[in-house]
Automatic annotation (TrEMBL):
Protein name per the record: Chromosome partitioning protein
Organism: Rhizobium herbae
InterPro entries: CobQ/CobB/MinD/ParA_Nub-bd_dom (IPR002586), DNA_Partitioning_ATPase (IPR050678), P-loop_NTPase (IPR027417)
Domain annotation CobQ/CobB/MinD/ParA nucleotide binding: ranges: 4-181
One family name in Pfam for this protein: CbiA
Highest taxon of the lineage: Bacteria
Amino acid sequence: MTVISIANAKGGAGKTTVALLLAMEFAQKGEKVVLFDCDPLAFAAKWHRLPGAVDAIYVVTGITFANLGGNLRAQQDQATHIIIDLSGARDALIALAAGLSDLVLIPVQGCAMDAQGAAHVLDLIGQVESNARSHINHAVVLTRVSSFVTTRALRSVKALLASRNIALLDTPIIERSAYRDMFEHGGTLYTIDEARVSNLAKAQRNMQSLALEVQRLVAAPAHPQSSGPFARMCQRAPADVPLSQKAFEHPLTPRPAQAFQLDTVHADR
């Protein structure tokens, strides 16, 4: 079982889009996916109630700091993948989920507010890593990128993040009408009426590339300082042993988030 968390302290960064695209592609391959919808607005759960729901995708709501570990244990023999769609500005839950994950994805659009939300998550991850003396596998994924953005422009963004030791997925989420249609009418990118949206095949290829890269990251050799995700301990722990929230509320003495500015990416003219 792999655990993948999607986190950005700012709403509207594309967390649920990333979570659903991964869930759809994994399900298309015949793998069972459980999606923990931690957002009070429950966009993933609302999508799942629309027509065309996928049997291989199961959505769980009501996830809190207190019950996250128990829910992970309950699914460890049932799901191939657990995807945690985190809400913004819930430090303890984000920190705990990050420590329990095989991979943390941080969606970012090319705007200052998204960058600030990403910086907050990156700072939380750094604090948990320091507390645990272990590496947490994480990467930024660009979302809602214009289809006119050039490869050169994306290379520039990757170089900027690399200079700050921040990993970036090679696959950005390109803005497509198919994603909006999916949230409004239900179904997946494999069941949407092709006559209703444009560039559906391109959206499918984008989703496939994203899932493939994520699976490679999860399967990659462990970081030298990594002792494996805390999820392994969580799954082995007795169900009646609660996790302490105090350990995650303030992992270290609070400090200002690391400066992280990602300028809007434009296509070459």
